[in-house]
Amino acid sequence: MDAFTQMYRHSIEEPDAFWAKQALCVDWQVPFTRVRNIDIGPDIVSIKWFADGTLNACHNCVDRHVDARGDQVAILWEGDEPGLAERITYRELHGAVCRLANGLRSLGIGKGDRVAIYLPMIPEAAISMLACARLGAVHSVVFGGFSAEALAGRIRDCGARVVVTANEGVRGGRTIPLKHNMDKALESCPFVEKCIVVGRTASQVDWVEGRDIRYLDLVDTMNAECEPEWMNAEDPLFILYTSGSTGKPKGVLHTTGGYLVACALSHRHVFDYRDGDIFWCTADVGWVTGHSYIVYGPLANGATTVMFEGIPTWPTPSRFWEICDRHGVTIFYTAPTAIRALMREGDEHVMRIDRSSLRILGSVGEPINPEAWRWYFEVVGEGRCPVIDTWWQTETGTIMIAPVPGVTPLKPGSAALPFFGVEPVLVDDAGRVLEGVAEGLLCLRDAGPGIMRTIHGDPARFIETYFRRFPGLYFTGDGCRRDEDGFYWITGRIDDVINVSGHRLGTAEIEGALVAHQAVAEAAVVGYPDAVKGQGIHAFVTLKAGEGETEALRQELRDFVRRQIGAIAQPDVIQWATALPKTRSGKIMRRILRKLAEGKVEELGDVSTLVDPGVVAALADVARARK
Ligand code: WT7
């Protein structure tokens, strides 16, 4: 612990010296001479790391390993169908990435161009990301669970001229019509010139001649060598969309050098990664967790990274452990929602499978409740494997707060201590910095080199969202407590962002989808605690005059939201409301709606500032009846 504390202090007190040394964990084409240039002002925020260095992320994740470990498996893919597996060595990965990069280049893609990727969890997803990185093209991966409309919005925002998809995805024994969704999305994206289609299944799909290209046809004739484009450290690597408390999803932009260094360093230390480990992060590459801990972190460190196409409960709730057993997984990283779902299925599904290869268990995406933590530790890990609760965000790029295995004492439910270079600060509503034992809003004074640089196309929103409220600090949107040992306990979002099964959603987005329906006059969406999903979605909906409050309409609204955003955004509960509780200035009182959704009708608090307190009484009657 002393050595760790010393190293941490060094990272905060002498960041330039610390990071100059740590950044050598990646290969630089032109070495940097400057380390850290950060300017956080009221009107301008400029974050630059290693600014005069050049490198290529794909070279670092692939090429540099070919000589030393060309025959080692880089990507260990397990398909949805049990036993269906593919092993891609670093040498093979190099060839596959170069061929696709050459293919993309033949379509006119180069430095700075955006490419949207809408793929299932197949090796081609990682290969596409790396091929973009090789050319200096900026990838924007869109989670395969998003609808055509959500996909279109993201393609339009990033302005991709080329997109990559698959005919279908396969998950939990079911197919997902990815190409069909892409076709629909592209109807509103006339600027997209080419659509590359991976054939994941044998199904035939609609084809637009001249626009659509089979992946295999594209790469078939291409050379397996492709010179990487040497990028400036601050050139963009990717854009990834995430939900905020207001407006449409934000295109979080990450750059090359700092992000890659942060990925490699955190992957090594937080998971105690060592040569020979089999590392499995169960996230989807459509989320930042997949970017940093399936692709960039593990591959930068020359690891074997497992990629799983399916779901934890199919065909049985033993699936995760079977994969761990079959492939000898040593480090396993998943989300509390999956742990809780499997915990509910019973210990026998875990116990009957050998898990002796496991060494480290990680958790990410939402607060892990102590009960789930203990089950993960005792049943899954047999009390042998530290549970590493990692707190971070799409925006921070990499892990910010986490225990270090074998070093930090573990407290179930706490993400423990800040990682190297990370300086958390707790503040109160008025922006006063809180010292010692305290609970407040979590800000970061420093977040290391992996943090986002801007919101694509909207730098003003970047400053407004993260830097305006507390001058000089990055505001995370989370509430947090610091205990007597200086350990951090994340208490959850304090804004209108909800976390459903580890998926981040803005309540405003779901409200927007609901009010787009012709029958809906007004809608307010809040989260409520759910034992498995973390949070569920409760929508209060006011219909237009003359519309009937029917079960059929309820179903129609759920489908309507699914078509606009995706299945993850479908409300669990739709409650009809003749009116919504509003203050005299017209603001919806969400605090009251949250209590109603929780069924805590006795704790509504002061409703005297409402225009019409009777509105609450009517909603509370329904809540009471439901209890
Ligand atoms: C939000 C970020 C980090 C990659 C996956 C989610 C919540 C994340 C934890 C944790 C408590 C957590 C926060 C955060 N969150 N990890 N270990 N303990 N809360 O990334 O979709 O950008 O969501 O997820 O509320 O702000 P994301």
Brief summary of the model shown:
The protein is built from 19 helices and 31 strands. It has 627 residues and is an alpha/beta fold.
Keywords for this entry:
627 residues, 5-stranded parallel beta sheet, 7-stranded mixed beta sheet, 31 strands, alpha/beta
Describe this structure in words.
Residues 509-587 form the AMP-binding enzyme C-terminal domain. The longest helix is centred in the N-terminal third of the chain and has 17 residues, at 90-106. This protein is of the alpha/beta class and 627 residues long. Strand 9 (169-171) and strand 10 (174-176) form a beta hairpin. It is globular and about 75 Å long. 32% of the residues lie in helices and 25% in strands. Bound molecules: 5'-O-[(S)-butoxy(hydroxy)phosphoryl]adenosine. 5'-O-[(S)-butoxy(hydroxy)phosphoryl]adenosine binds at residues 242, 287-289, 364-367, 389-394, 415, 476-478, 490, 492-493, 499, 504.
